[in-house]
C-alpha cells in the first residue's frame, strides 16, 4: 500500500518517543522508505541507533553533520518526502515551527518540505492547554498542518489529563490516509451501511444474521483513503469502524432505515452493504414468554426495504449500489434486484463459495449493471472495495 512512498518522521524530546520505533517498523513493513530526524533532546529518550537499524538510513540530528548522503541534506530530504509526521511533538518544537524558527535539522527540514505535515503533540496536560501552546497549534492549522489530537489518560508524571500521544496504530492511519491513494474521490460524499440489524423478540432474544460488517468497513475505509467524506451507518459489527468516518450506530432495521434516509440526500454514492433482517416480530404474547410456553408462536412482518426506498428517491447524478447474497442463480436473481430496486449496480456473491460472504476476510464478487457483468476473483475485502470504487469511478 505504501510501496515507493517516502515518510519523514520527526522525533522530539518526549517519553513517547519510544512509540515511534514501532511506527517506523510498521511503515517499513508496508513498503515505505522511512527517514528519521531527531532533536538533541529526543536522543536522551531513545538512541538514534534504534532508528538507523530499522530504517537502514542515518538518523539525522545535527544540521552541520558532514557525513551527508546528499549535498544539502535537509533540502534533498524535503524534496523526497511524500509526508512528514512530527511525533511526539513537544511544545518547544511546535512553537519554533509555528513562528518560523529553524535552528536544527528537524525544524530546518520541515520548513523546506512542500508536502503535507502532520503533528502529534505530546506533553503535560497543563502545558498542552497553555494558551500560548494552543495559539501555536492554531497557527499550524492555519498554515495547513494537520494536528493529531492527543488522547486523555495517565501522563508520564502520573497525572490524568490530555497530552498523551495516541498509539502508533492511529498515527499510522493518518499517514496511510495522506499517501496511500490518489485523492480521486475528493469532494464526494459517500454513504455506506454495514453489519447486521437486530430485531428484538423480548429483552433477551432477537432476530439477526451472520453479517460481520467487514465488507462495509472496507468500503468506508477505501473511500476515506481516496479523499471522500464518508458516513457509515452501522448495525451489529465485528471490531471497530475505520478511522476518519462519521459513524451512525443503529440496532433495528427501522433505525437503519431512518438513519439512511436522513443521510441519503447529501450522498453522491450510496452503498448498502448491511445485511438487514428481513423480518421483525409483529405480535408477541408476553404471558407465554413469562410461562416459557414451548408452543409460543411469533407473528412476523417484513422490515422496510431500504434499497428500494433509495431507488425510488434517487436524485440525478446519485449512484446507488446494493449487495446481493445468493445461494443459486446468482446473476439472474441479482439482475432482478437491480431492476426492481432501481439501483445502478449490484455487487453479488455466492454464499456457497468458500471465501465469500459473511465473516470472512475475503470475498468473491460479481459486479452487475444494466449492461455489464464483471466477475472479480477471490480477494481480500479491502481489495474488493478498491475494485468496486474503481468501477464506479470508471477506472
Q: How would you summarize what this structure contains?
A:
The chain has 2 domains: 174 residues, Rossmann fold (3-Layer(aba) Sandwich); 204 residues, 3-Layer(aba) Sandwich (Rossmann fold). 33% of the residues lie in helices and 24% in strands. It contains 14 helices and 21 strands.
Keyword list:
14 helices, alpha/beta, 395 residues, Rossmann fold, 21 strands
Structural write-up:
The chain has helices spanning 19-29, 48-55, 73-80, 91-98, 105-112, 125-128, 131-142, 168-179, 214-225, 253-264, 286-290, 306-312, 330-340, 381-392, and strands spanning 6-11, 33-38, 83-89, 116-121, 146-147, 151-154, 160-164, 189-194, 199-200, 206-207, 229-234, 246-249, 269-272, 279-283, 299-302, 319-326, 345-350, 362-363, 366-368, 373-375, 379-380. The strands form 6 sheets. Strands 12-11-8-13-16-17-19-20 form an 8-stranded mixed beta sheet, sandwiched between helices. A 5-stranded parallel beta sheet has the order 2-1-3-4-5, with helices on both faces. By secondary structure, the chain is α/β, with parallel strands linked by helices. Helix 1 links the parallel strand 1 and strand 2 (33-38). It folds into 2 domains: 6-179, Rossmann fold, CATH 3.40.50.1950; 189-392, CoaB-like (Rossmann fold), CATH 3.40.50. The protein is 33% helix and 24% strand. The longest helix has 12 residues, at 131-142.
